[in-house]
Here is the input.
Amino acid sequence: MATLVSLQSRLPLIDCQYYYRNRTVDGYRKKEYKAAVKIQSWFRGCRVRAYIRYLNKMMTVIQKWWRGYLGRKHYRQMVKIQKRWRGFKIRKYCFNYYYLKEYLRAISDTNQAIREALEEFAEMRGREKKKADLEKEEKRKQNQARKTHYLLSTKQIPGIYNSPFRDPDPMEFEIRKVRAFQMPSAAHQIQQTDYEDLSTWLACTSKRSFPRSDILPPINRKQCQGPFRDIAEVLQQRYKPLQPTLRVATSINSEKDAREELRREEWNNRVHDNVFLPFSSFSKNEKYVPMVQTSTKYNGISYAQKQFQEEEPTKWMSNKTFQTVFPPFVLFDKYGKVYSRAGEIA
Amino acid sequence: MSQRQVLQVFEQYQKARTQFVQMVAELATRPQNIETLQNAGVMSLLRPLLLDVVPTIQQTAALALGRLANYNDDLAEAVVKGDILPQLVYSLAEQNRFYKKAAAFVLRAVGKHSPQLAQAIVDCGALDTLVVCLEDFDPGVKEASAWALGYIARHNGELSQAVVDAGAVPLLVLCIQEPEIALKRIAASALSDISKHSPELAQTVVDAGAIAHLAQMILNLDAKLKRQVLSALSQIAKHSVDLAEMVVEAEIFPVVLTCLKDKDEYVKKNASTLIREIAKHTPELSQLIVNAGGVAAVIDCIGSCKGNIRLPGIMMLGYVAAHSENLAMAVIISKGVPQLAICLSEESEDHIKAAAAWALGQIGRHTPEHARAVAVTNALPILLSLYMSQDSSEDLQIKSKKAIKNILQKCTYLPALEPFLYDAPPNILKHVVGQFSKVLPHDSKARRLFVTSGGLKKVQEIKAEPGSLLQEYINNINNCYPEEIVRYYSPGYSETLLQRVDSYQPLV
Here is the structure.
């Protein structure tokens, strides 16, 4: 009962409390509501973000794979193209196989050509050498034949190369063909004496006439028995060299030669060849100075002028003078005109 | 009368001197007399006769001295020690041509023995007088002085430099153009001796315009002249690329190739030396030689001579092949490899064989085609035997080993490789088996041949450490064949089979 009373006493308060509580709770209600909304929204946001993150990761993985696949596909295609391109480039520009083959073929052709050319060259040289050798051999044989020309066989005596029991040796024919070998000193001597003049004639006579040989006579020659003179003396007398007189020894032209010599000498020493001309104008310009004897009013001496040169024109047959048959004396024309009066008589 | 007697005494003395000096000069021509002459003290007697009043005695005394000094170097030293050289040099400038010739002969005879004697000659001022003699009118005097200068310059670079500094080179080039063949020879040999020491000296010779004249004289018919000219050109060309190019620009190709066909052996040798010196510098020069057909000419030349004459030709082929694979292919198609194989087997000297081995290695190392060309000629077993034999020199062994290795690394021609399985030492065997393991997986016919020729059997017999390269190769080879065959050929298979027979329970 008591409780009931207490409760009944509280009854009117309940309304107030109810309304009070509601009022107060209302105040908080918004806040709490907002707080709850906030919390829930944040939580939902977290969940969704987590989900999105998860999705992102998956997306990344897939895209990664996909892009990798694309790249590889691309790469394979690229590689194909580049492979082809590189092969082409190398084959065409860096190492052209066919070019190399061509080059090697050209090399082997050149080698062949060179080998042939060298062979020919060597052969030609060999032939030339052989020819030269043969010629030398020929010459040697000929020389031999010339030197041993005395081995030629005569009609009576067959030579050593012409044995009667066998065929004649080829040397025999060789000897018959060639001419004999002459000692060179004799040939030279003959040449020298062609152009002799008197100065060496003496030497020539002594050489030619005295019999000279390379081998001197033996020293211990026994004197021949009998009234013989000493052979050296005899030979000396026999082959005494000519000792001509001065008149004989001088040549016939010696005087003329000497004159020529002098003239030449003088011509050499002359300064110039023009002959000194007389001062002809000197005498022309000179005024005539008559002699004292002729320039007198008295009759001059007619001794030299007139008496020897008397003229009687009446006795002349014609007006013409004598025809000159002989050339006039040049010397007489110069009379009175030569500039020097040296040596003139008066 | 007494005056005549007095004069007669002098005349007798002069006759005696003349006779003495002439007899000594004649005796000095024979080597067996020289010892006796030396013991009799001929040097001290000849020395005052050099200063004699009569010119003939002076000349004959100089000639006798020259012959004595020529014979051996003790006498030459005695000439130097006896202070004869200054007198000779002085009178070289003054006297007539016979004396000049004799004095130059003495200088040459003294200078040829050793560098110290040559230095003594240079020290007493002989070079200037010798160079003056080079301008003389008489060709004999020029020849004697050029010879003396050549012998002095031969020894080393300093002496050559001294000769060049004395101004000899332009005069020598003038001497080459003279008509006398002997003078040309000597001048060419002197130029060759000068230019061989260093590039600067060679450049000096080239600057004097020597190359054009030397190149013209290659066509001359005289063999000894050609020898000297080719030697001079090769000494010039060997130093550097520029000099070699200058020599080539003088248009020596293809004229030089005719010298390779000459009758004289040394002309051939010097011609191939010249070509070798040009080819070794750059690939372009080698290309030039190949295009001119030089390789064929050199190969023919190698074929036609023997011994040391071949050596430069062999080396030339090696140098050409070493530059590039196209050039090596050019050597191969010119039929060079059979010739080199013949040289390798025929020659008796080790250094020539070493050169041939090296050349083959250079040819075969580029590509499998090249290696095949070398292997076909059967050169590889010869190389192997040279490597293995005990009497080969060390150089030969090294070169043949390198050649084998180089060729084997590229060789895919299996019939040539098979003999190697049997004879080769382990280090080479490794390479051989490696080559087999590269080729066999791809070629079925080769596999068949390998089995039938007994190669597989031999491979099974090879013992190798597991894990080594050799074992790997063997495994590769075994993988090419079905297991039964491999087991069939493995050693001891017959025993295992028999064991199986023993342990077999027959079906009743």
The CA atoms of residues 438 and 476 of chain B lie 8 Å apart. Chain B touches chain A through 21 residues (CB under 8 Å). Residues 422-491 of chain B form one domain.
